[in-house]
Write a structure and sequence with these properties.
It is a single chain. This protein has about 375 residues and is mostly helical. It has helices at about 1-25, 30-60, 70-90, 95-100, 105-115, 125-145, 155-160, 165-185, 190-220, 230-255, 260-280, 290-310, 340-365. The longest helix has about 35 residues, at about 30-60. About 35% of the residues are buried.
């Protein structure tokens, strides 16, 4: 038994030393490649969102076929898929604690693309928020960990059984169960409760996405070994798919209960914070980083958070009444409608409601 314990400690030491060697040998070009891929992916996502919004508005104004029959809408969906694929690939080249905050690029780009593409009004808060977010992005990229580990199956297994991650996982499970109980059983529908559920799932998503992306990247390197034959790859793949699915479920529920101007910035802040914590605890990305670098990195994140809040705040809501819409009691034939049969009245008002909704969709700003 003593020999087995000694061998296990020796194996852990060997893996840890190998990990340190891989980190030290990681070239700066790989790190920069991950940043560039992530920024390009987020810009594509912002373009795709504006294309999809344009397709929705156009289809609603025409009042013809559903939006999913539009070629423009499918083009936006395709662009979003390419952008998300870029974000996925970026995790294989750069630290997770850096890739997640770069999501603010999508918010910045979307705010300014909508001004050009959808003729929306640019506000002072958009300019100030964009400036703060860009400054924060520059600061966190400059002071983030400039090394990234070669993710292998053995290394992921080593990280997964480390005591600090097991403790972190236990705390996450307990918090998730408590929040789920409060949300489902106690019927507390507060936005913070819902977004914390999403953030806890996002933490597992970031860990599994980086593991899957890193093992795929390592498998297709010239000098790398095939990592797809190890069970841990498929375990992480299942965790990635499951956590993403439940994230989408809770996000959709949040979008139904709250306005997008609330959900988008809060989700960005919570997701980024959970991703940074996951990167620190599981992948030990801040190991050996100077205190000044850590402080400036967190300061850069704070600037990005503030910029996103300024861009998203006080945007017009879809529920707002447009000033140009004629009141229903002023519509010709309104008084005569009281004398019509209930079935005809329902059809008339239903048609009028559809037109009003389309008119609002063309005039309001969706976040």
């Amino acid at each position: 038994m003593a020999n087995l314990s000694v061998r296990w400690e020796a194996l852990n030491l060997t893996i840890a030393l190998t990990h340190r060697a891989e980190v030290m040998e990681n070239p700066l070009q790989t790190y920069l490649l991950g940043i560039i891929i992530s920024i390009c992916g987020n810009v594509l996502i912002s373009i795709s969102l504006n294309i999809q919004k344009y397709a929705h508005v156009r289809q609603c104004q025409r009042g013809s076929k559903p939006y999913y029959t539009s070629v423009v809408w499918w083009g936006g969906v395709l662009l979003m898929g390419v952008g998300e694929l870029g974000n996925f690939a970026a995790y294989g080249f750069a630290p997770a604690s850096l890739i997640a905050p770069l999501g603010c690029v999508a918010v910045i780009a979307s705010a300014f693309i909508s001004v050009i593409f959808l003729k929306e009004t640019v506000r002072v808060s958009d300019v100030v928020g964009g400036t703060l977010a860009i400054t924060g992005t520059y600061v966190l990229v400059t002071f983030a960990p400039h090394t990234s580990t070669h993710i292998t199956a053995h290394l992921v297994q080593f990280y997964a059984v480390s005591w600090h991650f097991l403790l972190y996982l236990a705390i996450e499970i307990i918090l998730f169960c408590i929040l789920l109980f409060v949300y489902k059983k106690k019927n507390v529908k507060h936005i913070v409760v819902v977004m914390l559920l999403v953030a806890l799932l996002a933490s597992l998503t970031v860990i599994s996405v980086k593991a899957v992306s890193g093992m795929i990247t390592e498998s297709f390197k010239g000098e790398g070994h095939l990592q797809l034959i190890y069970p841990i790859f498929y375990v992480m793949l299942v965790i990635m798919v499951a956590s993403c699915a439940f994230q989408i479920k809770f996000l959709n529920q949040a979008m139904k209960m709250f306005d997008a101007t609330e959900v988008v910035p809060i989700n960005f802040v919570f997701f980024t914070a959970s991703a940074i914590v996951a990167g620190i605890i599981f992948y030990q990305e801040f190991e050996g980083l100077a205190l000044l670098n850590i402080f400036m990195f967190l300061f850069g994140c704070l600037l990005s958070f503030l910029g996103v809040f300024l861009i998203a705040r006080n945007r017009p809501k879809a529920k707002q009444q447009d000033a140009n819409i004629i009141a229903t009691d002023m519509v010709p034939g309104r008084r005569r409608a009281d004398k019509v049969q209930p079935e005809a009245k329902t059809r008339m008002y239903g048609s009028l409601a559809d037109k009003l909704m389309c008119h609002r969709a063309g005039k309001t700003d969706e976040s």
